[in-house]
Structures are given as C-alpha cells and as structure tokens.
Amino acid sequence: VLPDRVRVHEVGPRDGLQAEDAFVPTSMKAEFCRRLVAAGVSSLEVTSFVSPRWVPQLADAEELVRELALPGAVRQVVLTPNLRGLERALAVGAHEVAVFVSATETFARRNLGSTVRGAMDAARPVVSGARSAGVPTRGYVSMCFGDPWEGPVEPALVAGVAAELMAAGCTSVSLGDTIGVATPGHVRAVIDEIVRAGVPVDAIACHFHDTYGQALANVHAALIAGVTEFDSSAGGLGRCPYAKGATGNLATEDLVWMLHGLGIHTGIDLAALCDVSHWMAGRIGHPVPSRVATALLAA
Ligand code: HMG
Ligand code: MG
C-alpha cells in the first residue's frame, strides 16, 4: 500500500545552485526560498556551510540564513561537513543540519578530501554537537548505487554507512544516487538491506538524480518499500560539482505530478511551483530540465 502523504524535501536552493558558476545574489536566493515556501514547500535545503574554496556559490550561507526569516513551521536544513561548518550554522540559528558521507572511497576523496572512514569520523562530532544544541541531523549517504570511478556499489556497504550514521545520532538518512544510475530493483535491494541493518524505514529518505531518466521509477520502488520522504529540486536544476557526469536532481514538478496522480498529498501547488522554477531558471539563464514544468508552461 502507498502512503497518503509524502514529505518532499526541496533541495533546489542548495543542490540546485551549488554548481552555478556565476554568483547568484543572496537576495535572489532568499527570494527563491520564499517563493518555494509560498508554493507550498514545507521542507527546504537552504545552503551549505562548507569551505567557500570548494563551493564558492554558497559562500554567503550566513547572510542568506540571516536574511531568510521563513515561517517557523518550515523545515530548514543546511549542510555542515565538519565542526567548523556546525559552529557557523549554529551561530546563525540553524534548525537542522546535514552531514554527508560517501559510500565509496573515490568520492569521499573528491567531495570531502577524505576517506569513507575519515568522513565518518568527521561527521560523528558534528552529529553529537548538533544534538547537544537540540538540533537534528540528517545523514546523507552519497554514491549509494554507483560511482563514476568505481562502478556499482554493494548494498551491504551502503547499509553499513547508513546504520553507522544512525548509530552516531542522525535523525534520518538520505540515500543519494549522486549520479543517477540506480534502477528500481537496485533501489529495493538497498532499502531492504538498510532496514535489515536496523534502520527504521520511516527514517529513510531517497535523493535521486535523474541523469538516466530513472528517478521517478526509483521513487515508485521506494514508495512500495515504505519510504515517505523524497528529495527533489525545483525545475530539476543543479548537479554536484564533484561528481563526474551528474546532472540535476529529480525535478520537484515531476515528483509532485506523479505523487498527486497516485492520490498522495504533498501540500505543494504544482502550478505555483512551476512559476517559481521558470522564474529562477530565467534568472540564472538556464532552460528548465523538468518535463512537467515544460509541459505545464505550454499547456
Ligand atoms: P579540505 O581542503 O580538505 O580541508 O576541505 P581544510 O581543513 O584544509 O580546509 C580548507 C580551507 O577551507 C581552509 O581555509 C579552512 O579553514 C576552510 P584556508 O586556510 O585554505 O583559507 N574550511 C571552511 N571554511 C568554511 N566553512 C567550513 C570549512 N571547513 C574548512 N565548514 C572540506 C575539507 C570538508 C572543508 C571540503 O572538502 C568541503 O567543504 N567540501 C564540501 C563539498 C561540497 O559541498 N559538495 C557538495 C555537497 S555534497 C552533494 O552534493 C551530495 C548530496 O547532494 C547527496 C547526493 O547527491 O549524493 C548531498
Ligand atoms: Mg545531490
């Protein structure tokens, strides 16, 4: 049976913008967030407190969080790779933070300059520090299905990382298909393995990128497995700058179209969301990759 409600975690302001070369002014990022919330988005990934050398686009994280002033009911997550990131986030009153650990060694090195073990060791004090401050932590596992340098990833490896993040105190884990290579049977196998490792299914979110056009099929497989939280990006904008060949996240419009078609509530007004995506894409000078956002504009 499918759930009646799904939480859509909108990552456009973070995953969608992080690889943009031309700096998007802070006030425009804030406007993007506010418009998303006005369209019914209630869970939002705002920015990252990472090294500005690594992700120059998000160097304005403090300023953005201070300027935002979203309603308290909106869940706002920020990425914090290390204690330095956590301190910066807490100093501006972050509500929820996220750590990220790769399931594969090559991506751990390229995305964090570390190893899988090193990334986990860096994440652990961030999670406990956040917890002491009363702030929940989302734990991302990247490259859960395939890695552009290492090929397919063993489900047991992913389950080990996910279970370790939960044991460290994360309140949820998000399974990243960073390069979009997953297919539905593989998704089911990974979720089953993680549940077998002791992680409750309601603590699992799925974060699909749509590089190979499989993201919606993968969402459907995850829904059947009991997952009720999905990450997506308005319009399908974005990619990870450190993952070779990765395109944008699953588009929020495509996700919401399918969920609403299945009779599943999201709280999102699809037409309003489309307007936001076209507005943002126009500002940064990109076409909107989302099929649904394109079709609705023409309809
Ligand atoms: P490093 O270069 O190995 O570490 O980076 P470092 O300790 O030598 O620091 C380098 C410089 O950054 C130093 O400054 C530090 O002070 C500074 P310098 O002395 O050179 O002037 N620094 C910081 N500054 C501000 N905030 C901080 C911070 N930490 C260090 N928090 C580090 C290590 C972890 C910092 C770096 O690798 C990094 O920032 N990585 C983040 C990369 C990133 O954001 N990737 C994209 C997000 S993950 C993703 O997209 C996947 C996801 O979507 C899920 C999926 O799709 O799978 C989540
Ligand atoms: Mg991502």
UniProtKB/TrEMBL annotation:
For this UniProt record, the keywords arranged alphabetically read as follows: Lyase, Metal-binding
User: Which Pfam families does the entry link to?
Assistant: HMGL-like
CDD domains associated with the record:
DRE_TIM_HMGL (cd07938)
Q: Name one GO molecular function term.
A: lyase activity
Q: Where is the Pyruvate carboxyltransferase domain?
A: 6-274
From what superkingdom does this record's organism come? Bacteria
Q: Tell me which InterPro entries the record gives.
A: Aldolase_TIM (IPR013785), HMGL (IPR043594), PYR_CT (IPR000891)
Which family, according to the similarity comment? Belongs to the HMG-CoA lyase family.
Q: Which NCBIfam families match?
A: PRK05692.1
What's the protein here called? Answer: Hydroxymethylglutaryl-CoA lyase
Instruction: Give the originating organism.
Output: Rhodococcus gannanensis
**What's the source species' lineage?**
Bacteria, Bacillati, Actinomycetota, Actinomycetes, Mycobacteriales
